[in-house]
Amino acid sequence: MHELEKTIGYEFKNEGYLRTALTHSSYANEMRSRCPYNERQEFLGDAVLSIIVSDYLFKSSHLAEGDLTKLRASIVCEKSLWGWAKEIHLGDYILLGKGEENSGGRERPSIQADAFEALIAAVYLDSGMERTRQFLMPFVLRSLENEEKPAFKDYKTLLQEIVQKNPEEQLSYELVEERGPDHDKTFVVQVKINSNVIGHGEGKSKKAAEQMAAKEAVELMGE
Amino acid sequence: MHELEKTIGYEFKNEGYLRTALTHSSYANEMRSRCPYNERQEFLGDAVLSIIVSDYLFKSSHLAEGDLTKLRASIVCEKSLWGWAKEIHLGDYILLGKGEENSGGRERPSIQADAFEALIAAVYLDSGMERTRQFLMPFVLRSLENEEKPAFKDYKTLLQEIVQKNPEEQLSYELVEERGPDHDKTFVVQVKINSNVIGHGEGKSKKAAEQMAAKEAVELMGE
């Protein structure tokens, strides 16, 4: 479990939450004295994930409600959660019952996704919303980057549209800083029109930092 | 709008969030210069409501995941939201387009429920999660009291089951204090076995305070 804590860059005060997140019901059912398993935390983690993603999409985009809902559904879903679980090799740590193990449960997307949701709740119960947001956003941002989002009229698009009105003006983004450990990097980006800096942004991925820089620029331009 | 702020016991720092929550798309569509309407805030409010209800149900009950999910669905739904909107006469404040007004839109459950969801987001955007929880929980608790919840094995039931092992012992709950203004009352309850006080609890409704008192008693008894 310490290895997993190192991977996710979070050390639990109460290891019980982590242990519960990693315990599948099939394992608990086989114990003589039943131990807690991850289904209740999964229930909570689902809502924590949803508010963190909703808050981010609401504040960082101009999307209309229908597009926000579609985009949220594409992130808050088994496919993303499974992907995130694989990124941190969560399957290796799940406590499974023998029957489940023998039928290949360890590799099942739903078992891994559910454990990841329970892990979200574990961080939330251990340290509250803000720390959980910090833990989760790098995963969310990577998934958003991979999304097909024709409808995502974001700040970069918006800025592009404003600038295009003057064809001689050229937009460019530059990475000016990378800081922090690998699992929790912060990127700083500036956006320029020709050679003039018109915005700075920070984020947990380059794309997110670019969004924030574009946002600053759009606001500077009074739009 | 000030009347509504008085009713809900919350004064906005940024009145814009409240105004947007009260603006239906039909109204915005009729304006020459389009103004923001409540659909995006409704998207956010839905997730805020869900985490507040999930957090409460998770922490205040022993329910299994399936029952938690059922109970959450019975609270996070149009029927509850419509009921809450009616409690605060939200319909009276909604800005509607003429067509919608003439076809009776002001009384439509979905329009009122959506505005309430957007109002939740308005408080959240204006003051953050904790203040929103404070605003919302009295509504949630009243709805939970009205729920049929055969599956809700709560602390009171649990305590009853423990005490019943000794038939000569009698459980009773007493309200010992009510404080705060009408829209934001706090109740304090004690629970006794025969004449001995075994727990105290506070809550935003009598039933919630009884739950907390029973929780303290159950924990005192080492269960």
Automatic annotation (TrEMBL), chains A, B:
CDD domains: DSRM_RNAse_III_family (cd10845), RIBOc (cd00593). Its cofactor is Mg(2+). Keywords: Cytoplasm, Endonuclease, Hydrolase, Magnesium, Metal-binding, mRNA processing, Nuclease, RNA-binding, rRNA processing, rRNA-binding, tRNA processing. The active site is at D46, E117. It is found in: Cytoplasm. Homodimer. This is Ribonuclease 3. It comes from Hydrogenoanaerobacterium saccharovorans.
